[in-house]
Amino acid sequence: MLQRSARRPQFFYTTAPLPCPYLAGRTERKIVTELSGPEAEALHDRLSRAGFRRSHNIAYSPVCPGCQACIPIRIIAGAFEPDRTQRRIARANADVSAVEMPPRATAEQFALFHRYQKARHADGDMAAMGFYDYRAMVEDTPIGTGVVEFRDGTDRLLGACLTDRLSDGLSAVYSFYDPSAEKRSLGTHAVLWLVDRARELGLPYVYLGYWVPESRKMAYKARFRPSEVLVGGIWRVLGDETVNASVVMSSVEA
Predict the structure, then answer these.
(1) What pTM was computed for the model?
(2) What single-letter DSSP state applies at residue 77?
(3) What confidence tens digit (pLDDT) does each residue in 150-161 have?
(4) Among 51, 110, 138, 212, which is disulfide-ready with 72 (CB 3.0 to 4.6 Å)?
(5) 109: helix, coil or strand?
(6) Helix extents (H) in 3-83
């Protein structure tokens, strides 16, 4: 007698079209699925390797008609070599300490998050988020995650990075920092710290989400080398001639 599997089916849905947050005049659509139950960690791992990202208890990936501008990217932590600018940023933030906190939203974090949104993304949806929205972003998670807090010598909170733990790396879900400390390049500093932490943990990758070459806000991710991009369903080293050709072709098609 055949036994039926007790595992419930995993459903995927496509969102309605919305304006693209990265490229003006384009439309965004996503494929989404719920992360829940005892299989959430394993599913999140598999989907991350397939180019998905997490928000709350949802995993998503862009499926925008006629556009392939969003390219999944991850840093090869063990082989990473900072460039001259990144070394300068590390020296400038030598006084900054990092502490890994549990996924619990605090009023201090939210105040910094709110200042960051108003200064950098005032026209975005996140600028209207209240504390309970922020708390949901941090705490509504079915998988291993935490908040890395970055503080100066006076214990002032300068930045934070919501970070997921995967079986093969760390995933930077969302980071924000004090807009008055822009010269510190704390966003880059946070990525450099994640690379060092991944090495300490013996994890091969740091997932940065989507690299969008045509977007000034997202193009910086390609500065961390060596890194890999997901092209044609295969992770390939960025800088390879085949990869460069594929990225150019994607931009032309978009």
Answers:
(1) 0.91
(2) G
(3) 999 999 999 999
(4) 51
(5) helix
(6) 40-49
